[in-house]
Write the structure tokens for this entry.
Amino acid sequence: MGVQAKPRRLVAGMTLGVIAPSSPVRTPGKVERGLARLEQLGFEVVLGAHVHETYGFLAGADAARADDLLTMLERDDVDAVVCLGGGYGAARTIQALDLDRLRRLRRGPVKPFVGYSDITVLHALLQHELHWTTFYGPMISSFADATAYTLEAFRQALMTAEPFLIHSAPDGPPLQTLVGGRAQGVLVGGCLSLMVSLVGTPWAWDLREKIVFFEDVGEQPYRIDRMLTQLIMAGGLTECAGIVIGEHVDCEPREPHKSLRLEQVFADLLRPLGVPMLYGLPIGHGHHLATLPVGARVELDASGQQLRFLEPGVL
């Protein structure tokens, strides 16, 4: 993965550039509330030129979404880039990118890049092409109804240049230790279905000796079984250092009497790997949302049920 470049921490008064690299957000009231919440935190907000466009299930044409991404990363008056929402389309945004233009950013300042879900593929792109530490965390649509846990996690990851701890939310579901023990490594991962979609591309994650996290939404247990099986057969997951399983929202089987439970899928496929493994941290599509600096070194204490960042994600 190479040496990770870290951005400056965010402070009030900085400007956040907002882009829509995936699907359009069809709840404008939620977007307005999310933008207002960021302004209440003291940030200025500027929108990408094409952020309100719609092209079927995409937030505008591929070239327009790609241009918004590059423009916000390039602009001297934009300090960080936050995605509007997820859905589908970020992979098509990559296809439309001018990669030479992107690679020129290696010479410029590092900016925080924030998003989750479909944005997983853009985290992988920026990690591979620029070696930036990026942030798997809330998007504009998330800030509309952000909990105190979500806001504090965002603050500690992006506004405080100190190591920190990820733990369960006060009113969240209990965590489960699937395999005890401790492990250290660089944190990589994202939404499971998007991680699998990258296999065979230049931007697939190298999972060897890494602490791997994943989460997903709206997937049946058999589909999660299929995706994990593919990652295992592709090789990298069998050599990882530890596994953090986030929340899997709306992933209960439609016909329980004909299905394995998710816990059984994880036990069958992942326990044999023999690495420390923790299930249930508030990562992804749940009510509470942690912010994870992707590319930072962490210690997974599966027995103690916590994920500790050994270094901050910002300077």
Summary: The mean pLDDT is 97.
